[in-house]
Amino acid sequence: MNPWVALPDGLPDPSHTRRLRAAHEALVTRSGPTVPDQVRAVVWDSWRRSLGSGVDPDGKAPPVDLLDDELLAYRAAHPLAPVLPVIRRLLVEDAEADRMIVAITDADGRMLWVEGDRQLRARAEAMHFVEGARWAEEVAGTNAPGTALALDHAVQIYGSEHYRRPVQPWSCSAAPVHHPVTGVLLGAIDVTGGDHVASPQVLTLVRATVAAVEAELRWLHREDAARRVTPAPRPPARPVPRLEVLGRDRARLVLPSASGPAELSLRHSELLVLLAEAAAGSGGRTAEQLAAECHAGDAAAVTVRAELSRLRRLVGASLLGSRPYRLTGPLETDLDQVRRLLARGAVGQALERYPGAVLPRSSAPGVVAARDRLTASLRQAVLAARRPELLLRYTRLPEAQGDAAVWQACLETLPPGAPSRPAVAAHLHRLRRAARAPVQQGPPQGPRPPHPSQAQGGALDGAV
């Protein structure tokens, strides 16, 4: 029999559970046999180490070592951060359907990421199975991630094999992760849940995930080594005109040949956005098409031609052509930059470069469509990421103020004890209360309530 597997047949046995609890009671009261037959040697040895470390089987939950900004900064710099997509694809994506929690620790047993089934995570918070908590064996007793790190081996811990009684309703499977080149222990990957998590199949899945993670780390190491090789010098890149339209009432155009940026009129701003959007599809626009995209109602094409003529004099014929109207050279836009980051999955960087919506004062149908597409893509990406620091940053945007789904997701992902939780909960409560209130006739009364980042002394700024 494999000594590292908790339930070789994959099924719990009530009589086995009773024997485990009796042996555990005998050990902690120092009245039992030296090595009882019904307890796996790996578990018995872990119990003895836990007892020798002074772990109280009924004592308080493990300590939370890392909180808020300190946790975010630590795990962002951790060697396992770049391979999170692999772990999420192999384990986390199916964790909710399989009723499991997936945890990733550092080499000291501190939980860096805890994801998976939301209901189980809410229950696990009571025993401090949360991000930032330390589950090393010497402070949390026998548990799969802590014992896997202590022994440097994949292991399962079934229910009553846990040393601390509050953890005995859970089962877990964990395996250590090493750097494939240096061999340094980086941490552990753990799956926690009900009795089914102690089956041999789950331990095999965890070990396969570790193998995939270490293979990805090896590939990343080779990429880093290749980048460190000094490349041949490249010719300097030619400067490209840049159009800034995010969070601005009027676009700002930076031309390499100009002495400084130019503030465009709203109509010229709209026309350049529309032509940039057309260029993304390798096409141009007729005056009639631009008229339809600039005006909600009917508009004469001759008016658009006049505006384009003035715009060409401003930006130069080298950038703006005609028949059809089109961009004749590259034009970098902050709108397109955010879209590229979202396409790469770099949600945090996209959010950093998104100060607000595309030309928020514009009512041109083509601009409104581009604005709505980007706003929807960013919102979907932030919600899918389920990262509290991203959700908090997103709530500061004007389009998020009345979005109850965003505030609900933010509240669900914030760790217990986060300073920002009360302010987020209060704002979500106001949104729900406003949704239930009858519609008032006439102008609104009283000042608009402040965003939670302005309330309570700016509790949301930089605090997760």
From TrEMBL:
Which Gene3D superfamilies does the protein's record reference? 3.30.450.40
The domain of life for this entry's organism is Bacteria
Region: Disordered; residue ranges are 435-464
> Which residue range or ranges hold the GAF domain?
83-216
Coiled-coil stretches, from where to where?
none
Q: What is this protein called?
A: Putative phytochrome sensor protein
